[in-house]
Design a protein that fits this description.
Elements lengths: L15 H9 L9 H4 L11 H31 L1 H16 L7 H7 L2 H6 L1 H11 L1 H19 L5 H15 L2 H12 L5 H26 L10 H23 L12 H15 L9 H8 L2 H31 L3 H6 L2 H20 L4 H21 L5 H28 L4 H24 L11 H33 L16
Helix pairs in contact: 3-10, 3-11, 3-12, 4-12, 4-15, 5-9, 5-20, 7-8, 7-20, 8-9, 8-12, 10-20, 11-17, 11-19, 15-19, 15-20, 15-21, 17-18, 17-19, 18-19, 18-21
C-alpha cells in the first residue's frame, strides 16, 4: 500500500476538478493504484478486518460524540421556547406580551427559520474555507452568546430579533455535520452512523424539557424570572460545548491529524474504493447550478421537509398536545421524553436494515412515513376518552420522524459523489428542513387547539403520504438507471462501477 504526500492518480472518467484539488492538496493526499480506484471492488480487500474495525471505532469515538453534543444543544436552543412558555404558570407570556390570542409567540418561533434557511448554503463555503473545527465551533460559541442575551430580553420584539440571529449561526451546524459524517464512512456504514448521530441528539435534547423545567425553579433569584434563568444557563452550557468543539472536533479525512498515516490510508482507501471522492474538490457556483438541475436532490429535500414538519411540530407543541389530552403542566413536561427514548429502537433497527440489506433504503423511509401518518392520526383523531391510545400515537409519530431524518440524509448521501456535491446537497436538504420547521411551528393554530390542530396534523399526514409515494418513484427510477449502467448505456454520477443503493 502506498504512502502519504503523493498526488493520487485519477482515471479518465473522473471529474478533472478532483485532479486540480489533489494537486493543490498533495501534502494531505493519499496515492492510490489504479486497481484501488476501481469502484465496485471489495472496499476492505487487503486490510486486516480487525484493524479496519479498530480504525472505524477510533473515528466513531472522535467524530460522532462531539457532533452529538453540538447538535443536541442546537435542538435544545431552538426549541426550548415551549418550556420557557409553559413553566412558571405562563409568566413568559405575561412579561413578554405573548399571551392571549395574538400571534406573537408564533412570530418568535418562526423568525428563526428564515435566516436558518437562507444561510445554509453560504455556510458550506465557510466550512470549506476555515475547516470544521474553527467554523462550526465558532458558530456554536456565537449562538451561545445569543442565548445569554435572550435571558435578558425585556419584550417579545427583542426576543424575536435574537431568534433571527440565532438562526444565522445555527444554520452552519446541521449541514456541516451531515457533510462531515458522509465524508468519513463508506456507504454501507452511513445510515447507522447518521441514525446514532441524530437520534442520540434528539434524545439528549428531549431531556431539555425536564432540565429546563428545573432551571425554571430559579424563578425570582437575582430578580430574574425562571424563563430568563433557563435561557442564561443553556447559553452557558452552549459556550462550554463550543470550547470542547475547538479542542476535539475533526475535519475531513485528508486532514485527520488524530490518525496515523496507516489509519488515514485505510479510511481514505475504503472511501475511494466505495465512491472515489475522499479528496476534496472546490465548491463553485457553476457546480451549484449543475447540481441544482438534478431531480433526485429535490426529492430528498422535499422528503426531509415533510419529516421535519412533524418533528418540529412535536418539539414545539407536544407539551400543549399532552395538556389537551388531560395531563397537567408538570406531566406534560416530563412525558415527552419517553417518546424520544422509544425513537432509538426504530431508528437503530431501520438504520441497520438500510445499511446491510440491499434495496431497503427506500422501503425504510416508506415504513417510517407511514408511522408518522398513523401516529399523527392516533394522537389527534382518536376520541378523548382513549387517552392511552392517543399517547401511544405520540410514540409512533416521534419514532417515525426521528428515524426518517437520518435515513433520508443517508439515502441522499449514498446516491451522490464528490465532496462539493455533498456540501451542496447537505445544505439544500437541511434548508428544506428549515421550511419544515416553519410549517411545523405555524400550522398548529392556537384557535384550533381544542380540535387537536386539524390544519397542522392533516398537512403532516399529506406531506408524508407524498414522501412515501415519492420514495416508490425514486426506487423505480434508480432501478432503471442501475440496469442501464450495467448494460453499459451510461454512467451514474460520472463513475464506472457506481450504482444507486435502493
Amino acid at each position: 500500500m502506498s504512502g502519504i504526500n503523493e498526488v493520487p492518480k485519477y482515471e479518465e472518467k473522473q471529474d478533472p476538478t478532483h485532479v486540480e484539488q489533489a494537486v493543490r492538496s498533495s501534502s494531505d493526499s493519499v496515492k492510490y493504484d489504479e486497481t484501488e480506484r476501481k469502484l465496485g471492488v471489495d472496499i476492505d480487500e487487503g486490510f486486516d478486518p480487525d484493524e479496519v474495525k479498530r480504525v472505524t471505532r477510533k473515528v466513531d469515538w472522535r467524530l460522532i460524540p462531539m457532533l452529538v453534543l453540538m447538535y443536541a444543544i442546537s435542538l435544545i436552543d431552538r426549541t426550548n421556547l415551549s418550556v420557557a412558555r409553559t413553566a412558571n404558570n405562563d409568566k413568559f407570556d405575561k412579561e413578554l406580551g405573548t399571551g392571549g390570542t395574538n400571534n406573537r409567540y408564533s412570530i418568535i418561533t418562526v423568525v428563526f427559520f428564515a435566516p436558518y434557511i437562507v444561510f445554509e448554503l453560504p455556510s458550506q463555503f465557510g466550512l470549506r474555507a476555515f475547516g470544521a473545527r474553527l467554523w462550526l465551533g465558532s458558530a456554536v460559541f456565537l449562538w451561545g452568546l445569543v442565548m445569554l442575551g435572550m435571558g435578558f430580553a425585556q419584550n417579545w420584539q427583542t426576543l424575536a430579533a435574537l431568534r433571527v440571529i440565532l438562526g444565522v449561526f445555527e444554520s452552519a451546524l446541521f449541514p456541516g455535520a451531515a457533510f462531515l459524517i458522509s465524508c468519513w464512512y463508506p456507504r454501507k456504514e452511513l445510515a447507522f452512523r447518521n441514525v446514532v448521530f441524530y437520534v442520540t441528539s434528539a434524545l439528549g435534547s428531549s431531556f431539555a424539557k425536564v432540565i429546563g423545567f428545573g432551571f425554571a425553579h430559579l424563578d425570582g433569584r437575582a430578580g430574574l424570572s425562571g424563563w430568563q434563568w433557563m435561557f442564561i444557563l443553556y447559553g452557558i452550557v452552549t459556550i462550554l460545548i463550543a470550547i470542547l468543539a475547538y479542542i476535539f472536533l475533526v475535519d475531513v479525512p485528508s486532514k485527520a491529524h488524530f490518525l496515523t498515516e496507516r489509519e488515514r490510508e485505510i479510511v481514505m482507501t475504503r472511501i475511494e474504493r466505495d465512491r472515489a471522492d475522499s479528496i476534496p474538490d472546490p465548491l463553485t457556483w457553476a457546480k451549484i447550478k449543475q447540481y441544482s438541475c438534478e431531480l433526485k436532490s429535490w426529492y430528498f429535500a422535499f422528503a426531509f421537509m415533510s419529516t421535519t414538519t412533524s418533528s418540529y411540530a412535536l418539539a414545539y407543541f407536544m407539551p400543549r398536545i399532552l395538556t389537551i389530552m388531560g395531563f397537567n403542566n408538570v406531566e406534560s413536561m416530563l412525558l415527552g421524553t419517553p417518546t424520544y427514548v422509544y425513537a432509538i429502537i426504530p431508528g437503530v433497527i431501520c438504520g441497520g436494515i438500510a445499511d446491510r440489506i440491499p434495496k431497503m433504503r427506500g422501503n425504510m423511509i416508506i415504513f417510517n412515513a407511514i408511522c408518522i401518518i398513523v401516529g399523527t392520526a392516533m394522537y389527534s383523531q382518536l376520541p378523548a376518552a382513549q387517552r392511552g391510545a392517543r399517547f401511544a400515537g405520540l410514540f409512533i409519530a416521534t419514532g417515525g420522524g426521528n428515524s426518517n431524518v437520518p435515513l433520508i440524509l443517508s439515502w441522499q448521501a449514498v446516491s451522490i459523489r464528490a465532496q462539493s456535491k455533498r456540501a451542496f446537497c447537505s445544505a439544500l436538504t437541511v434548508a428544506f428542513g428549515g421550511i419544515g420547521g416553519i410549517l411545523g411551528s405555524t400550522l398548529f393554530f392556537q384557535r384550533e387547539a381544542k380540535q387537536s390542530y386539524p390544519t397542522g396534523v392533516f398537512t403532516i399526514m399529506g406531506l408524508n403520504a407524498a414522501t412515501a409515494l415519492g420514495a416508490l418513484a425514486m426506487m423505480a427510477w434508480m432501478t432503471m438507471k442501475n440496469k442501464k449502467a450495467k448494460r453499459g448505456e451510461g454512467l451514474i454520477e460520472d463513475a464506472e462501477g457506481f450504482f444507486y443503493q435502493i
